[in-house]
Write a structure and sequence with these properties.
mainly alpha
């Protein structure tokens, strides 16, 4: 599929079409990658500056972590599209006979789990990036602090967007124990990291507005 190899215009055009993929999950992963890239931008504008020599090692470590997460989120753009195709096919499986019903139920159980796991992983990655953005905002060049603020809000949006793609799949699961386990993890990430992202954004906002 290679959606991440497309130009920005091509990606937006296919996203706005009736094509089943990419959708909200892939878009969330891409927004998360963009937010992560903004953190790396802060790092690049901080390294080598005498004023920030005392945090240069910290910034280098942050950038190394951010680069890995950025790449992981881009991979998840593609992965989200990959897991949707078998889910779409499973919904259209016949269920006229008991045998067909059983087969469909078994297939649906697996594809729903896969389809929920990818946006759940997007959420996990976004949480990690939000942590990093807090450090970029605190330690990075003050000339680029606005970019850290934009980056953390992008990652918060990606976190929230991915959660909806988790919940739409867990809602359809017959295995309610598994669904509730996944939902609990997603809910906990939302509770902790939307608040953390808001705190980082507020810190940046107040620095720029004071």
């Amino acid at each position: 599929m290679n959606f991440t190899d497309k130009s920005c215009r091509e990606f937006v055009e296919v996203l706005s079409s009736k094509a089943p993929v990419p959708g909200g999950g892939g878009a969330s992963a891409l927004v998360g990658a963009l937010g992560t890239a903004l953190g790396n931008m802060v790092g690049q504008l901080t390294l080598g500056k005498k004023k920030y020599a005392d945090v240069e090692e910290d910034i280098s470590i942050l950038m190394e972590k951010a680069s890995k997460l950025q790449e992981a989120l881009l991979i998840l753009v593609e992965k989200d599209a990959e897991v949707f195709e078998p889910l779409a096919k499973a919904y259209s499986m016949p269920k006229e006979t008991e045998e067909e019903k059983t087969e469909k139920e078994n297939v649906m159980a697996q594809v729903l789990r896969d389809a929920a796991e990818v946006p759940l992983e997007i959420m996990r990655k976004c949480c990690q990036v939000i942590e990093l953005q807090g450090e970029f905002a605190a330690k990075g060049s003050r000339l680029a602090v606005s970019d850290a603020g934009v980056g953390v809000i992008f990652c918060k949006s990606a976190l929230q967007g991915a959660s909806l793609n988790v919940f739409i799949n867990t809602k359809s699961m017959k295995d309610r124990e598994l669904a509730e386990k996944i939902d609990r993890e997603a809910d906990e990430m939302l509770r902790e990291y939307t608040m953390k992202a808001d705190e980082i954004f507020a810190s940046v906002f107040h620095e720029l507005r004071r």
